[in-house]
Every structure is written in structure tokens, then in C-alpha cells.
User: Fold these one by one.
Assistant:
Number 1:
Amino acid sequence: MDSAPVLEVRNLHTHFFLRRGVVKAVDGVTFSLKRGEVLGLVGESGCGKSLTALSILRLLPQEAARTVEGQVLLDGEDLLAKSAGEMREVRGQRIAMILQDPQTSLNPVFSIGNQLHEALARRPDERGRSLRERAVDVLRQVRLAAPEQRIGQYPHELSGGMKQRVVGAIAISCAPEVMIADEPTTALDVTIQLQYLNLLKELQTSLGMGILFITHDFGVVARMCDRVAVMYAGRIVETGPVREIFDNPVHPYTQALIASVPKLRDTAERLRAIEGQPPALSDLPVGCRFADRCPHAEPRCLEKYPEAVSVGENHTASCWLAA
Amino acid sequence: MQRYILQRLVQGVILLVVVTSVVFFIGRMTGNPVDMMLPEDATEEDRQDMIERLELDGSVMDQFGVFIVDAVQGDLGTSIRYRQPATDIFFSRLPNTLAMIPPAMILAIAMAIPLGILSALRRGGIIDRISATIAVLGISTPNFWLGIVLIYLFSVTWGWLPSSRMGGPLNYIMPTVTLGTFLVAGFMRLIRSSMLETLDSEFVKLARIKGVSETAIVWKHCLRNALIPVLSLWGVFMGGLVTGAIVTETVFAWPGIGRLTYEAVIFRDYPLLQAVIIMDAIFILFINLLVDILYAYVDPRIRFE
Ligand SMILES: Nc1ncnc2c1ncn2[C@@H]1O[C@H](COP(=O)(O)OP(=O)(O)OP(=O)(O)O)[C@@H](O)[C@H]1O
Ligand code: SF4
Ligand SMILES: [Mg+2]
């Protein structure tokens, strides 16, 4: 899998400019996603994963949030330089996204069919099928039972797992090059989670999309991803192929995350197993951001931020121990 | 859907029975109506005479029985002042009120929806601040006062508009503004806050992710959701409309139901007052039924419950 990256994020900074100060929620994120690859973005709650995704789509949550630096290259074109109108052509058509909670991500007052049509209508069908036929077809692709009936139904008539399939159908309706899945299974029942992950994997293989898969869960990473980027306090601290990261984690934070994966899969709680708290994003230290919690911290860790260095094939880490 | 309507109808009938009883017994609790109606120098003979004429000689429960039996047959008593069946008077005045409500509603809606949406879209902007001012003024200005000020300026001082009674279209302007102002503030703030909430929702985020245009986000995805709380608070607005109509019609000598209510109170015409209140209740229940049906149409979650 050495093809050119379809999505490249370089030195991305997205900050909240609040009255009480500047919250540097995304502060120098760099990673790339290759065509047809699944890249996991892992890190504890609040480290800036969702905000990174929304920065890529340029859908920041409020006026106070702004992307102040960096580049987001889709096939080499910088999305941050595009006009609002051009950006709308990218959303849904070239980059799609699945949100975390299926209970709230569909509009309660419009039918499933209506919400699918909105997405499908943006691209004419080369086979000349009607919107309805295409909607049924795309629902079939996400393995929703009885799609003909579903399109007339409203979100409240579907279970959480079914709704998330509809959200998936919306995401693939324009055959995007990149799909961002922001913890797509955290809100689902455990039994349904696995089915959904399998479905995503299947769609990814058949459509050849690159997926940026955001999760708390290293167990899910092992199942889904080709490569993984570990994020801590607004930056990527380690990147590498999944096997390599599991077998040979270099950054102490990655090591702690992997050590805290229990044998039995439960939910997000486990990442808290690491002692201490991440630093306040409004008052970040100059040195390594993990230093407070790191068992190997040395004086130089506090003085200067460790730049990413190569520690193996396609494997980089930002830690003075590796430098 | 039919079950839903039937359910609402049954609820309406129960409510009507409650309203009727409350109106009746409160009327009696305020004292013997005869004492209130007779002039101060009336003799005991006059008093007996009146008691018999108004069939007030039985016990309160007996009177209530008679009242209910008559009411079911459409007889809500005879007005003391007009000496006509109270319902006849009500229906002769009803068209005048019905002629004033739609323009006031249209004015309120035509102002509230765009202003509510615009102030939600540009929170803290100029339109938001102007509409907040309008809302504060609208809520804190008693509408009898607004009515009087309008009359003073537009009729007395400048002589542009007729000050009272019905007539040509010009007669509608001031009552419409007076009654509409009463409604617009609440409407506008409600639409603003529910627009803000929906604009911030996950489904709007997903719609943007799909690449839906901002225009469709506002007018399709948000507005329909934002109208749900407005419709569910409709009952409160109806209450406001009734009190608003009483004040407005009184100020502008508008011969409608509101003015009739006021007269019934002033002239102690208790059968008329009872009848007007009960008919108002029926009217409000009917409007609320229509709104409930509309509500079910807007919000599919209701339709299937
Ligand atoms: N509206 C906001 N105002 C101020 N700060 C915010 C706002 N939204 C998010 N943040 C900050 O941005 C940081 C990153 O948020 P983000 O949602 O990207 O975290 P996340 O990694 O996706 O976490 P989770 O795993 O809980 O979803 C948070 O720590 C928070 O401090
Ligand atoms: S740079 Fe120092 S403090 Fe930071 S993770 Fe490495 S060893 Fe720990
Ligand atoms: Mg998140």
C-alpha cells in the first residue's frame, strides 16, 4: 500500500478564541491517508480528534473556533484555500463523514428517503436510475433489511443500528474518496458494533475509499485499521502500521494506551487507566505535553518539544527517548 | 391519525365540562347575582321578582342541573341587558372578532418568523439587537396603553386613521397593530431560541457534511423543527389572544367578542358572561384541535404514537 496520499494534513492548528483565553485544541497535527487505507486516529477524550475531522471539512462548531495555520490537501489541492462554494462541492461528494450518535444525526421530521435523496441528488446517476431506485440500492449496500419500506419511514421508527446504517448510506451515496468515521460505533449496542465495523470494512474494500477512523479503542484499531496515528493534547505523537505499533510502541503514551487495553472488550473507560490529566489546552507547556504523566520524563523533555523522528519503516514518534 | 383526533376530541369535551362547572360555581361564589344586578334602592319585592324571573330559587346544585341540561341543548341562558339568548348575541358579534384576528396573526407571524430566524443566524448582530428591543417593548407595553397612544397620535393629533369602530380597511390598522404586537414578542423569541437549538444540532451538522446549502439548512432542516415548540406553546398564545382581544376591542370600541366580554362584566350580565366564557372555551378548543392536527403533520413522531 504505497500509493500516493489522498488526504494530507500538514501542521494543522485550530484554536478557540474565547474571552478567557485561546484554547489550542488542535495544535500542529500532521498525518496522511493513502488511497484505500484505513488510518486510525486514537487518543483520549478531549485531545482534539473530532475537531481535527471538522477542521478538514471546514465545519467548525462556532464562530470562536478558527483554523489559523496548516494545510489540508485533498489530492494535492489545499481545502483551506477553497471558497465556501467550492468547499460545499467537496463535502458529501469527495469527503463524507459518519457522526458518533445515530440517535441525533438524522433529522427527525424528514423521511429516510428524503434525507438520502438530498445526498444522492448532488451527483447525476450515470445509469439513469431514479432517485428512489438509487436510494433503495444504497440502502441495500449498507445491508438494511427491507429498503423499499425504509425509505418511507422516519428516523424514530428505526433502531440505533439501523439509523447508523442509514448514516453510512448517506456517506457512501456519492462514492467519496475519503470517509471520516468519528467513533461510529460508540453509541451502538456491543453486539451491533461488530456488525457495523464489518460493514464499514466491506464498504471500504468494495468502494476503495480511504477511511480516517476516529476511536478511543485500540481493540477496534486492531480490527479495522492499516495504520494508526496516536494523538495527545492536540498533536500526533506516534504514527505507524498497526502491527508495528502494537509490537513495538515507542512513545510512552502509546505504550500506556496499549498496556491498558484489557482482554475483555468493554467501553471507553479504559483509557483513563493512565494516571493524571492531560495539560490544559489553553496553557500548553513548551516541552513535551506528556511530561507530567510520563514515567521516563527527563529535564530536556520539559525544555523543548521533541520533533517527530523516524523510528522504523513508516513509523515515527515524538519523544526524546527515540531521538 | 383518526384515533389521535378522536382522543383530542374526547379530551376537549372533558375540558369543556370542567370549564363550564368552574364558570358556573365561581359565578355563584361571588354572591347572589341578584344582589349585584339590582340597583341599591330596590325593594324586597323587586328582589323576589327577579329571583323568580331568573329561576334562581332552587338550591345551587338544582340550578346547576338546569343550567347543564339547557347548555347541552344549546341554551346558555338569556342576557339580562339585551333580553336575548346569550348565544345569539355571541354569534352576532363573532364575525367582527374573527375579522380582526387573522390580520393580527399574519402581522405577528410575518414579523416573528423572519426576525426570529435572522436574529438566530446573526446572534448579537444588529437585527438580533433590534428584535430583542422590539420583544422587550412588546412584552412590557400594556396593549391598552399602546392602543391609546396610537389613537392619540394617528387619530387625535394627525387625524390619519379612524379612532374607533369598524368600517373600511383603515379601521383595521390600529387594532391589528395593537393585537399583533401583543403576540409578536413571544413568537419571535421562541422561534429564535428554537432556531439556535436546531442550528446547533447534530442533524444540521450532518446536513452540512452532506453539502446541503445554507439556505436549505435554514428553511428546510431548521425551520420545520423550530416550529414544533411554537405549535406546542400555541395554547399559551391563544390565552394571550383572548385577553389581547378583550383589551384591544374595548380600546377601539370594536363590536366583537372581547368588547362583549367587557360589557358583560361591567353590566353584571352574568348569564351573558357565562355564555361568552364557555363559547370562548369551545372556540379555543376548536383552534387547538386544528393546531394539534397541524402539529402531527409537522412532527412525524406524533403521528405514530
Ligand atoms: N465549543 C467549544 N468551546 C471551547 N472549547 C471547545 C469547544 N469544543 C471543543 N473544545 C475543546 O476542544 C478540545 C477537543 O475537542 P474534541 O471534540 O476534538 O475532542 P475529541 O478528541 O473528539 O474527544 P472525544 O473523544 O470526547 O470525542 C476539547 O478538549 C475542548 O477543550
Ligand atoms: S519526551 Fe520525555 S516526557 Fe515526553 S514522552 Fe518522551 S520521555 Fe516522556
Ligand atoms: Mg470526539
Number 2:
Amino acid sequence: MIADIKAFLSDFLVLGDPLIYGADISIVLSMVAIVFVLSYFKKWKWLWKEWLTTIDAKKIGIMYIIAALLMLFRGGIDALLMRSQITFPNEGFLDSQHYNEIFTTHGTIMILFMAMPFIVGMMNVAVPLQIGARDVAFPYLNALSFWLFFVGAMLFNLSFVIGGSPDAGWTSYTPLAGAKLDPGPGENYYLIGLQLAGIGTLATGVNFMATILKMRAPGMTLFKMPMFTWSSLITSLIIVFAFPVLTVALALLTIDRLFGAHFFTIASGGSPMMWANLFWIWGHPEVYIVILPAFGIFSEVISTFSHKKLFGYKAMVWSMVLISALSFVVWLHHFFTMGNTAAVNSVFSISTMAIAIPTGVKIFNWLFTLNKGRIEFSTAMLWALAFIPNFLIGGLTGVMLAIAPADYQYHNSYFLVAHFHSVLIGGTVFGMFAALHYWWPKMFGHVLNEKLGKISFWIFMVSFNICFLPMYFVGLMGMTRRMYTYPEGLGWMPLNVVITIGAFGMGIGFIVMVYNIYWSARYGKRDKTGDPWGGRTLEWATTSPAVEYNFAHIPKVETADAFLHMKEKGTTGQISKAPFKPIHMPNNSGKPFIQAWLMFFAGFGLVFEWYWLAIPAAAATMLVMAFRSFEYHDHHYIPVEEIERTESATGRLN
Amino acid sequence: MMNENVEQHNAHGGFPWKHVIGLILSLALTLIALWIVVSYSFSTTFTLASIIILAIFQALIQLLFFMHLNESKSRVWQIIAIGFGFFTAATVVVGSLWIMAYSL
Ligand code: HEM
Ligand SMILES: [Cu+2]
């Protein structure tokens, strides 16, 4: 009995690994610190009322972004641990099992829990403002989306200290990830954590599609929408059609693992390759989900800081539409080497190369926007400018990988690792950093320091190239992906040392950026105008940060670049012009938060196959939804006096 | 925009017969499909064919009873969305069959 309990606890608490003890201690300490700070400053109520129950898209966006930055930190630490292990030949810092766990958590966290929330956060911050709306179409659902993402991420992260991390790669290929070869809770954490977050993302897709199609300010036709809004619309569309495939694939593998089904095992007629197939049917559209919003941001930033209209607006839109359709017909390029026929490989090879065409169109559009523009080298603009060549390298090596016969050489080598980091960092991460600097004043009311911003940009960008360019070459020299160590005498060491130096350099760049956030919060220039960059789109028409209801009067739109047009006509004052009408707003609610945490416990129960926990928690989730459907008083009106007070406090009342 | 939504919400009223019928129908279809599979009393071909047909009806019921397919004013978007849906569903199914034909 005692021995049983001991054995259970040893697995449950992952005893015996100093790194994990370190994590245990730091988690407990930071929890104690958070509880202490909140209690000492009497902030519990504030936290609950202002944040945990909020359904204001602006605040939800901020929470997404904070979570994304924390996950970037965690994923970054994972990356540095991996790089420390493979700098020199035959190192013993991490053993093979530990290395497997770390590349799995790194990849999964970076894509699902860093890139995704960063993007959705930016959509929440900017889209309602850009289309002149007061919130998203379904604010309550929006809060639920956020909390589902959040508990999914927490569940996934918990695996490190409770029960053990997943270790079958972020792609979780069967049969390796099946119950037979990988027993224990690790892979269950992956499946359930992604499932929870994925449901949240799916709801976000529905929400933003409805918001953008239905809630635009009067006069804003589709082809007068800002480019970021366009990219969010297309992204939402891809989400709505791609994420159900992930939901189903995860559910099937969960059923395999927990209830002994055979969807993905050779035994009893299943097919392990079907997992790879389903995973990438979702997985390739997913990479466009994380890149298109970045494209949208670059369009905004480049146009703003070139002080020029975006070149080829229509071509930009149609190329995105084309990309969204093509993104569904290329997935096989992730497993050219799985043993398909030559015909299959050729078709997918060509469809993949075809995507380069609309993408190339976009690159030229950005270049022509810059052409003869009055270019202002702000930090946001630097990230956008650096994106072009860095992403181009990733895109061109992508075309190389798309050549099926050649891919037999590149597949699963460091060449591939370098390729996808070029596009993911050079595209998505640069895009999010550009957005962070660009929309920071809109979120918090002060600008980030430009000098520190530029320092962090240069350190990060140069280190990024020091880190990832050599990876192409070490890949061509034969170093494969997911290798936990390498022998001496292959000539790989010099490049690996350079790569690791670059990786740590990126870490330093990130620290400077975080310091900039801290410094600017204390001393940064406050943005009194609401329009620090000479903006062109409607988010700059309101205050920084935007008032609760975004616009006292919904702006009337006549052209694309609506705010610029208003400035030219001198009608910017109309948004805050008395008299006002009461404004209808949705009520805050604690239910999304509660429901998501109940789902967390249901998920935790499934991870350990503790049905005594999973079933009641799932039933309680249903109960919360039932209560919600009988909630009739879910909105209120902001009275005119309060609007007047708010508007005169911003100094805009006229 | 949202102001108009409120009015619509409150205007609903009446017993939601449509939803109840939809719920019963979709539960029935699910149970029939489950029964066909777990009873093991039919040939594989019949089992597969019948659950696919049931699935198509299931999808129609969802669209008509819950997703208000025939109630909206903005037809264009529905057509585009459903068209894109068919496109992705077809690629997924046809593509997977073709890819898997040689590697199953
Ligand atoms: C600080 C910057 C980063 C560094 C130094 C870094 C480094 C690495 C390394 C060393 C690997 C493992 C290679 C292997 O052994 O196979 C890896 C894998 C991976 N990384 Fe990163 N990475 C960084 C940022 C990112 C970002 C921002 C993303 C996504 C947005 C990302 C996505 C991935 C993915 C998907 C994998 C594959 C994991 C797997 O094999 O299952 N990484 N990265
Ligand atoms: Cu792909």
C-alpha cells in the first residue's frame, strides 16, 4: 500500500530530476508571490471585476498578449536548453528522453500557445476599433474563447511538473504517440490541452467572421476595410474550416489512447499514417493562420510609416483569398517521404509552389508601397522592413523543400528546421513585435521607448540570422532534426557553436524588449492625442487607450484609410460631439472563467483517466452552459451623463 | 449594430419547437448510427453506406434546425461559406483517399 502510494507520487510529481525540482520551486514561489501581492495591495476584487470577468475585447486582447509573451518566454527557455545540449559533440546536459520532451513542448507551445494567442490578441485589440465597432459580435463567447485557450495552455504546461511532458514531437505522430509505445499521461496532456485551446480558437474564428461581416461602421464596404481587418477575416475563415479537422484528429487519438480504439494503430485495421494525413490537413492551413495576420500588420505598418497609401490594395486582398484556398490543397508536402506514388507527390509539389505566386505578389506590393515613400524608421517599421528579406529566405527555401525528389534529401534535417524558423520568426514573430510596438499606445496609453526598441530590434534580428542561417548549412551537412547529441569528427561543431551563440543573442534581445516594456510603463511618453503615428485607420480616431465603448458616435466611413480622410476633411471631432445617446454594452460575466476552469478539471481527469473527476466536471460545465442560456439580463446601457463625463475627461468633448 | 441585436433577442419568445424537434431528430440519427455499428449484425458495406447516409441527414438537420440556414437575409455569404465548406470537405475526403490508397 505505502509502496504503491510512493510509486504513484514518484510518477505523479516526476521525482528525481533537478530541473523539475527547480521548476516546482519557482512555480510555488511565484504563486505565493502573486497571492501575496494581490492580497497586500487588496487587488483581488480589482482582478476579478476588471479582468477575470471582462468581456471587453480590448482587455481580452491584452490578456491574450500577456499570455503569449509568457509562453514565448517558456518556449524560449526550452529552445536555449536544447541549444545548450547540442552545442558541442557528446554533451550530457540533457538525456535523450529529456531532449524529446523539450522539443515537443517547445514546438507545441510556440505554435499553439505563443503564435496563436499573440495573433488572436492583436485581432481583439485592433479589429473592432478598425471597423468602428464597439465590441465583437459575441463578446461572451469571446471571453470563453480566451479562457479555454488559457486553461488549455495551463494544462499543457502542467505536464512538466505533474505526470511528465509529452515527448512525441509537436506533430505527435502515431504509432509513436499511440498508447502502446508511449503510455502515461504525457501525450494525453498534449491531446487534451490542444483540444481545449482548439475549441476556443474555433469560436474565435466564428466570432471574428461575424464581427467583420456584420459590424462594420456605416459606409465601410468590404473594399474599404483596413488590410489587417481583411487578413483577420481571411484568417477566421481558414480557422473555421481547418480547426474542425484538428478537433476530430485529437478526439480520435484520445479515443485510441484512453478507450483502446484502433484508428491509428495497424492492429485491427487502423492506419498510423492517417494521423499524419489529418494532422497536416489542419497543420498547413494553420501555418497560414499564423502568417496572414502578420501580413496584415506589415501592410498597416509599412503604409503608415511610408506615409503612403498601400500599393495594390485589391491585389493584396485577392492574393490572400487565393492563399486561403490554396492552403487547403498542399498538406502532403509535409510527408512527401511517406511512400506515396509519384503522381501524388507531383500534384502536391506543384500546388505548393503555386502558393509562392500570391505570396510574391504581396512582397512586391510592399516594395512598391515603400517606393518613393517618406520612410520613417520607427521600431515597428524596422521590424516590418526586416521581415521582407528574412521571410524571403524562408519562402525561397520553402520552394526548395517543395520539390518532392529534393525533399528526400532535406526532409527532417536542420535545413527544414531553419526553413520553418525563418518563416515563423521572420514572419510571425517579427509581425507580432511590429504590432506590439505599433499598437502599444492604443493598448496602454503610452508609447514604447524608441531607443530601447531599436536596440532590442538590432540585437534580436542580427542574432536571429546568426542562429538560423548556419542551420541551413549544418542541415545540408547531414545533421538531422530532433537529434539529442552528435558524435565528434563530422565537422558540425563550429556551426553549432555559432547557432547557439545566436540563440542566446535572441534571448538578450528579448530581455531588452521586456525591459523596454517596464521602462516605458514608468517613464514612457504618454499618448494624449490617440494618434501617435499619424495613423490612417479608425483605431487612431479614438483615445489611447480607447474608452470602454470605443467611439461615442460610430464614425461614418467614405473611403479606405478612413481616419486619414476624416483628418483631411476636418471631421475628426464628430466622434465625440454632443449630444450623445445611451450606449448599449454587454455585461461582464464570470461564467466563461468558471466554465473554462471546470473544463480544465474535466481535462485533467481525462489525462490521468480519473473518470471520477472528469465526469462530474464535464457535467458541471454543461450546467454552466444551461444557466447561461437562461440569462436574460446580459446587457446594460451607459447613460448619457456618464458618456459626457468620460468624453470631457479625455478632453475631446465639443 | 448591437442595439438592434438586443431587440431581436427579446423578440424571440414562444416555445422553441424547432430546436426541440431538431434535437430529437439528431439524437435519433446518432443512436441509429451507433446501433448499426455496435450491433455487428450487418455487412461492412451496408454499415458504412448507412452511417454515411445518416451523417448527411445529420448535417442537414444541423444546418436547417440550428444554424438557421434558410432564415438569413445575407444569402451571398451563406453561399460562399457553404461553397467553401464543400470545397474543403471534398479535398479532405478525396485527397485522403487518394493519398492513402497506396500507403494504407
Ligand atoms: C529563440 C528562438 C528559437 C530558437 C533558438 C529555436 C530553436 C529550436 C530548436 C533547437 C529546435 C529543435 C530542433 C531539433 O532538435 O529538432 C526547434 C524546434 C521547433 N521550433 Fe523553435 N526555436 C526558436 C523559436 C521558435 C518559434 C518562435 C517557433 C514558432 C512560432 C518555433 C517553432 C518550432 C517548432 C514547431 C519546432 C519543431 C518541434 C518538433 O520537432 O516537434 N521555434 N526550435
Ligand atoms: Cu505546409
